[in-house]
Design brief:
104 residues; mainly alpha; 58% helix
Length: 104
């Protein structure tokens, strides 16, 4: 199991390794750099990139308010972690929005 999967399973014990692997593949080289491998919940520009990139393009979501509300829930769920790994954040966002199947 990869480090990404271990961290995702901290929040979603029944998570699917195939979905995690697809998120890792989607993120690609962004995961090589520490800064870009994390999501900053306190940075509105970062959350905007997640909304406009991953949520809209990969998950096919269109309602900005609903996406923002889901991201807020994920940020709240992960608030105990100072660093919020991008793979975990994306997995939880897909789960929160009911679009996990789009990662298969």
């Amino acid at each position: 199991m990869t480090d990404h999967a271990v961290h995702v399973k901290k929040y979603a014990p029944d998570s699917d390794d195939k979905h995690i692997a697809n998120i890792v593949k989607y993120c690609g080289i962004a995961l090589r750099n520490r800064d870009s491998s994390l999501v900053a919940c306190s940075d509105p520009a970062e959350l905007g990139r997640v909304r406009d990139g991953f949520a809209k393009k990969k998950l096919g979501l269109t309602d900005d308010a609903a996406i923002d509300a889901a991201m807020k829930k994920v940020c709240e769920k992960m608030k105990a972690d100072r660093d919020k790994p991008r793979v975990t954040f994306y997995y939880l966002l897909a789960t929160e929005t009911g679009t996990l199947a789009k990662l298969a």
